Amino acid sequence: MLLCAGEALIDMLPRKTEGGEAGFAPYPGGSVFNTAVAAARLGVKTGFFSGLSTDLFGERLAAVLTAAGVDSALAARSDRPTTLAFVTLTEGQASYAFYDENTAGRMLSEADLPELPDHVTAVFFGGISLAVEPCAEAYATLAARAGTDRLVMLDPNIRPGFIADEPRFRARMDRMLAAADVVKISDEDLAWLMGEGALADRAAALLAKGPALILVTEGAEGVTAYGASDPLRVPAQKVDVVDTVGAGDTFNAGFLAGLADAGAMDKASVRAGLSAEVLEAALTLGVRAAAVTVSRAGANPPRRDELT
After folding, report:
1. Beta-bridge partner residues of 10
2. pTM for the model
3. Sign of the alpha-carbon dihedral angle for 107, 252, 37, 69
4. For the chain, percent of residues with pLDDT exceeding 70
């Protein structure tokens, strides 16, 4: 089973009213929430851990997880409000304004962390939850615990506007990188984290922090995997882009689903070194799934039968 650990929130997406006025419509979202839904839709047995509110929006998030087949039994429920993210789109690119103070997700603490069941073989971390406290420290602790014997995949998904204390954030990220086996990171996030330079050199520097595999995404250029073997690149699929909400989240799910297809969604398999065939198939599934997501509005990841 894959456990996705990170934020669930409501994306307030721009829409036109019947009268033609600009407005916003609420859609369940959040980077890690999207990954959980996408993985379940792709056939992976998936669980979700976060701070989930018992308010109207929290109940809606829980209902969407259930409908997708995601087990949210480990989630920490509270009566704090749900995080809201207002989204604006410019030429298909999303930007966000977050309302996150004192929310159920943000106020998650180490006391809320679950005991991981034996059937959890992989844990995924990512999103804004890694930048804001106290939840960021809780997730870092969970990653350290999981990393002893479970596959840990990390997507830093860096948002500088959320980082109040950069040295503290970098120190916490180093701890999570040391616990991670797989890191998916965009070229922009890699530049922020590791500085400028050749892509291969920066990926090598990131590998030196502990992971076995680095997946660098470059938007429409595709993704390149760096590990013990030669770099492996898979190009992006060309589609008409509606918006990019949930694209990276869906890629993460597709990659993990590809590992699950090969019986390799576990720490030992990744640390031993994936074959080029398994790695390429997992990257390709991630790219194909992400292409469907960007071709339609909002974070609406595909089911497996939509990829045939």
Report:
1. 28, 84
2. 0.93
3. negative
4. 97
